[in-house]
Design goal:
single chain; 272 residues; alpha/beta; Rossmann fold; nine-stranded mixed β-sheet; two-stranded antiparallel ribbon; 8 helices; 11 strands; 26% helix; globular
Length: 272
């Protein structure tokens, strides 16, 4: 069985929904406090997928995800290694990492996305929304059909909620922009209902460069996004579900956020 490890603690608060998504997909779910990994109670390498859920780690006091990223980079584990050293081995073992919202912010702060130089140095940041307020709304995302990640296989347009105050992706410099575009690392972009990518607010809720809602690395093993697919696991999570049901227009599972979790679990199963 595919084993999914979900970290929580320090203000992370979406671990249960993420766990439900993986359980629905047929994975074995283990939810632990970050410190249980650091003190050796669990071994990262016993798992197939490492997950950083959404929430407000350390209250976003410095910058969203920054404090948590520093703990991952610099705090020594019981083994004497830092967590980022273990993550590097995890990636080299061809395993997978998913970060959602605050989890995406952590991956960006760690330099795991887009990680163009394989040096774990940040090349992008997620900063305050252009609206200068917390955005809690449903949006549409258009998947980049050339993206190289199993998480998004077969998905075209995805309705999904966002819940963030710092979701605007900004990119370090023109060379980084060029490499992100040339390598198709923008995994999905904010769009209208028809799938037309747009910078128009509130369809793009934060003003992200290239209207990017998420990134992947070049291997496709690491995927992060600001929207919350784990909050759309069923047609009945959708705001207009009653109206759509009366009209005979129910949204199928493959068109919900659950599809992302189904995809990665099936992909790992097929590799075995």
């Amino acid at each position: 069985m595919v084993k999914s490890l979900i970290l929580t603690g320090f203000g992370i608060n979406c671990e249960i929904e993420m766990g439900a998504a993986y359980s629905n997909a047929g994975a074995e779910v283990t939810i632990i406090h970050f410190n249980e990994l650091m003190n050796g109670s669990y071994n990262l390498h016993d798992f197939d997928i490492l997950n950083f859920p959404g929430g407000f780690s350390f209250g976003d006091d410095i910058a969203s995800g920054k404090v948590m990223a520093n703990k991952v980079k610099y705090k020594k584990m019981k083994s004497g290694k830092t967590f980022i050293q273990e993550i590097e081995q995890f990636i080299n073992d061809k395993k997978y990492i998913l970060g959602i919202c605050n989890g995406f912010q952590i991956l960006v702060q760690l330099g795991l996305l887009p990680n163009l130089k394989n040096d774990f140095e940040p090349q992008t940041a997620l900063v305050r929304n252009d609206s200068n307020k917390y955005e809690d709304r449903w949006v549409y995302c258009k998947v980049n059909q050339f993206v190289n990640t199993p998480f998004l296989k077969g998905i075209d347009i995805l309705p999904v909620p966002v819940r963030h105050g710092e979701g605007k992706l900004v990119i370090k410099d023109d060379e980084t922009r060029k490499q992100i575009i040339n390598n198709n690392l923008i995994a999905l972009s904010y769009a209208d209902k028809e799938g037309n990518i747009t910078a128009e607010y509130p369809k793009n809720p934060n003003g992200a460069e290239f209207n990017a809602a998420g990134l992947t690395d070049k291997t496709g093993q690491i995927f992060g996004l600001m929207p919350h697919p784990e909050a759309f696991l069923s047609f009945y999570n959708y705001p207009d579900w009653a109206k759509l049901k009366r009209e005979g227009k129910e949204i199928k599972r493959k068109n919900t956020g659950q599809a992302i979790f189904d995809n990665i679990v099936k992909h790992i199963e097929k590799k075995r």
